[in-house]
Design brief:
alpha+beta, Cation-dependent Mannose-6-phosphate Receptor, Chain A, 2 domains, 6-stranded mixed sheet, 4-stranded antiparallel sheet, elongated, binds 2-acetamido-2-deoxy-beta-D-glucopyranose
Length: 291
């Protein structure tokens, strides 16, 4: 009873923990992308921390900011935005935190000056992300992170091209608009570079397969033999292993065989005719070691 209760409690605790951690995992997973291309696995982990970039591709400030013409684009990759300073002030911030917490509940926001007023449009949500390659034929170029926002009047999106650059971070002050509400920008970042794993060495190869085919029946024979001898013949201890004497004598046999082989070869090279060395008696194999 006690043990059962403990188990139930543990299972409950685990499920609770999983439930709490799940949204976080989902966001993280949303920024991982892997693809196989010409026998290699390209693994992009945009949000993975490194020594030099503890936030991965995410902006340390909590957001990236781009100003073009009278428009302001604010976005974060792989997460929602956070504002400790420069919080956007604009009308119409529903969909991204409302007037008091504007910018805090989405991943991308455009603020436009319309007749002297700044009006905000939510263009990306952290939960709606799609990652694809910049160049389908060359995964080393980087990835496009596309965020979506599904609104009552219109659907919007922001595509951020993250170009692989192993040396530096560069945020371009560029914003292009296509369609009614689809924006695009780009940056260069080391996190846009894939971890490449060659797939050649995966799998066992024919030799490994052969080894398994040979070893499995042998292991099965030893196992079943031991069980049989232990339970039915009531032979306990190391003696339960079938043919123990034979296995133990194996090293000795190998040595003797090697020795006789060497002797034969020596004889062969001595009289140039070979194979006239006296054939050893089989009893030799069982003689105790005398070296
Ligand atoms: C990609 O890399 C991440 C972290 O480096 C790892 O957790 C993940 O399992 C990898 N994915 C694949 C498909 O190898
Ligand atoms: C900025 O202005 C230029 C010319 O005035 C226009 O062609 C371009 O589309 C504008 N960009 C945005 C993002 O509105
Ligand atoms: C997400 O990207 C894949 C290609 O990588 C594409 O086939 C799919 O349509 C995209 N989804 C959306 C909602 O755009
Ligand atoms: C927005 O997208 C949703 C699902 O992708 C679709 O059902 C809806 O019709 C779209 N709305 C507009 C205004 O295009």
């Amino acid at each position: 009873m006690c043990m059962g209760d403990g188990l139930v409690a543990r299972v409950l605790r685990c499920s609770l923990l999983l439930l709490c951690v799940e949204p976080l995992l989902a966001l993280r997973r949303g920024c991982e992308f892997s693809i196989t291309h010409s026998n290699s696995l390209y693994n992009f982990s945009l949000a993975a921390p490194s020594r030099k970039y503890p936030h991965g591709v995410m902006s340390e400030d909590g957001f990236y900011k781009i100003a073009v013409n009278e428009s302001l684009l604010l976005y974060q990759l792989c997460d929602q935005m956070i504002f400790n300073h420069d919080q956007p002030r604009c009308l119409n911030c529903q969909g991204c935190g409302g007037p008091l917490h504007c910018g805090m509940q989405c991943s991308a926001l455009v603020s436009e000056n319309i007749g002297g007023y700044f009006v905000c449009t939510t263009i990306g949500q952290a939960s709606n992300v799609n990652i694809s390659l910049i160049d389908r034929s060359n995964p080393e170029k980087g990835v496009i992170v596309k965020m979506f926002s599904i609104g009552p009047k219109e659907n919007c999106s922001l595509s951020v091209s993250v170009f692989c650059d192993s040396t530096k971070v560069q945020v371009y002050n560029s914003l292009t608009m296509s369609g009614s509400c689809d924006y695009a920008t780009k940056l260069r970042h080391p996190c846009g570079c894939a971890k490449v794993t060659s797939r050649h060495r995966k799998g066992l190869g024919w030799f490994g397969t052969l080894l398994i085919i040979v070893l499995c029946p042998f292991g099965g024979y030893l196992f079943i033999g031991t069980i049989y001898r232990y339970f039915f013949l009531k032979i306990h201890g190391a003696q339960a292993i079938p043919n123990l004497g034979f296995w133990c004598s194996l090293p000795q046999r190998a040595r003797t065989l090697l020795r006789s082989l060497v002797r034969r070869l020596q004889g062969f090279s001595r009289d140039g005719r070979g194979s006239y060395a006296p054939v050893r008696d089989d009893r030799d194999f069982y003689r105790p070691a005398s070296y």
